[in-house]
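quick one before i forget lol
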Amino acid sequence: MNPFNIIIVLALIGFGLYAGRIVVQKSEAKKPVANNPVAKAAHYLAAGVASVLPLTLCATLFVLQLGRFQAVGVCAGLFIFEFVLLAIVAASSRAETKRSASS
């Protein structure tokens, strides 16, 4: 991996972290996530992955010049990772709801 590719990957990660923070703040204003550090971290990471996914597809195709199948594979992997993170958020929210209902 040459230095230019590393810079592109780091830029995508940085943008994902920045955009994820903004998305989480707007989401928390509308409907808060369960008050659980794991749920909050998973929500933040899922928001970051969701916001950087289109840029990742463009970057892998046009800048990093990976093949179409490799680019789709990278994006599919990120999408599955996002789905797992959102499943963690949902499970934490459901556990929090059950805990508060039984109290």
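fyi Residues 12 and 55 are 8 Å apart (CA to CA).
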